[in-house]
Amino acid sequence: MTRRIIPRDRVAHELAVSSRLLDRYESLGLVRAVSEGAQVGYEPAQIRRLWTIVSFQRDLGINLAGVELILRLSDHLAEVHHRVQALADELRDLLELEEFDSPTPPDFHD
């Protein structure tokens, strides 16, 4: 399966930023570019992340250190959310298994 990437120069143009700025974001580990043959670009999730970074800086005036912190916290919250969801799924499965395995309680209404 081939990845769906958008070339780096097109992303820079659409976001109205320089390719050097995208390189800087990559070097800081804020985003990851991927290669597809000779083409280097970004997958849709990374483009959304770039849009967020640019919006935070350009529209909200948040400096790069603040953006890094916000993204790190956001990533951590997403990880916690996935863990909680997995635990909830596991608990639901255990409760369903217990319901299935437990004998029917006697009927004392007679």
Provide the spatial order of strands within the biggest beta sheet. 1-3-2
Termini separation (Å)? 65 Å
Coarse shape: elongated
Estimated helix fraction: 55-70%
Largest sheet: 3 strands, antiparallel
| Series of secondary-structure elements, N-terminal to C-terminal | EHHEEHH
How many structurally independent domains? 1
Radius of gyration computed on alpha carbons: 23 Å
CATH class: Mainly Alpha
Task: Give me the CATH fold name.
Answer: Multidrug-efflux Transporter Regulator, Chain: A, Domain 2
Could you characterize the architecture of this molecule?
- The protein contains four helices and three strands, in the order βααββαα.
- It is mostly helical and 110 residues long.
- It has a single domain (6-101), classed as Multidrug-efflux Transporter Regulator, Chain: A, Domain 2, CATH 1.10.1660.10.
- The protein has a three-stranded antiparallel sheet with strand order 1-3-2.
- A hairpin with a 2-residue loop joins strand 2 (34-36) and strand 3 (39-42).
- It is elongated, with a radius of gyration of 23 Å.
